[in-house]
Specification:
With 179 residues, the protein is mainly α. It contains six helices and four strands, in the order H-H-H-E-E-H-H-E-E-H. The strands form two sheets. The protein has a two-stranded antiparallel ribbon with strand order 1-2. A two-stranded antiparallel ribbon has the order 3-4. The longest helix has 41 residues, at 58-98.
């Protein structure tokens, strides 16, 4: 029913079955059938069809206005759930593959990380480069048992995948870390 509802909303928003079909990447007949199926499921008409145009019935107008909020909520809910799933996958990768403990806080971008640091809710380990005067960040040295933590970066590729560009890429990459 959710997909049918979104098709109905598209038809009303665009004022055209053909434009709504194009927007949703389906045929005009398919979107018309989906709207008709929605009407059958609801038990009342949403649209009055006249030749190649349509108008909303009073029930259709009410239904359209009231349907916008729940579908928007559903879209937000799905997007949030996808972000949570992605974050969980990133945390699992970091924990299992990279060996980072799970108490790390993962954020979507540097701006969010800076806000958390500025609000005293975390630390942001930064490597290299000079600190900008306007940055509200404090650099935190990474140490274990009084010794700085050094990171080893490795690049691997299959022996059979070597082409003339791989050794050059490796040389350039190594140069970035040998400063």
């Amino acid at each position: 029913m959710l997909k049918q509802l979104k098709y109905f909303q598209s038809v009303v928003r665009f004022g055209s079955v053909s434009a709504a079909a194009e927007e949703n990447f389906i045929s005009q007949s398919a979107i018309s059938q989906q709207v008709q199926s929605l009407e059958r499921e609801l038990g009342f008409a949403l649209l009055v069809r006249k030749n190649r145009s349509f108008s909303l019935t009073p029930a259709g107008e009410y239904f359209y206005r009231k349907s916008l909020l729940p579908t928007a909520d559903c879209d937000r809910m799905c997007a949030k759930a996808a972000k949570i799933a992605k974050r969980e996958a990133e945390q699992e990768f970091s924990r299992i593959v990279l060996g980072f403990p799970s108490e790390f806080l993962y954020v979507e971008n540097l701006e969010v990380a800076r806000l958390l640091v500025a609000g005293g809710r975390g630390f942001l380990p930064l490597e290299g480069g000079e600190r900008q005067a306007a940055e509200p960040l404090a650099r935190v040295p990474l140490v274990r048992n009084g010794e700085p933590i050094l990171r080893t970066y490795c690049a691997f590729w299959k022996k059979e995948n070597v082409n003339p560009y791989v050794p050059e890429f490796a040389r350039l990459l190594k140069g970035q870390f040998d400063t």
